Amino acid sequence: MTDKTPSNTETVIPEGDAPPVDNLIAMKVLVIFLGVILVGCAVAFFSILLLMDTDEAPQSAQLPQMAVELALDEEITNMTLDGNDLALQIEGPSGRRIIIVNPYTADHKAVINLTPDPVPLNKPEAVKD
Question: Domain map of the chain by residue range?
Fold first, then answer.
């Protein structure tokens, strides 16, 4: 007896038809599972947004009042903030000075008067024994 079906048969798929899927049930379960997760995350996100207290406006940081006394002919020429320290460079006819303050607590930390040095820095004084 001879077998009438050839041993190397190929499944012929007509054009326009989708190829067969071996594990269609697993794919359907996966799509449903991912959809449930997506809907759950959306519900959680919007419920968190609704539960947040949005009636209160955020309180802005209230900085204390701070005053630096300047003469009539003095002006602030430079300001530098480093961490919690604010350095103000003040220039006037009487010279330059730097005032270091903490703007968050209004503490005056230091005043540095910058006056010209009468001794040049590049000529060391003679040391007497």
Answer: 20-53, 75-114
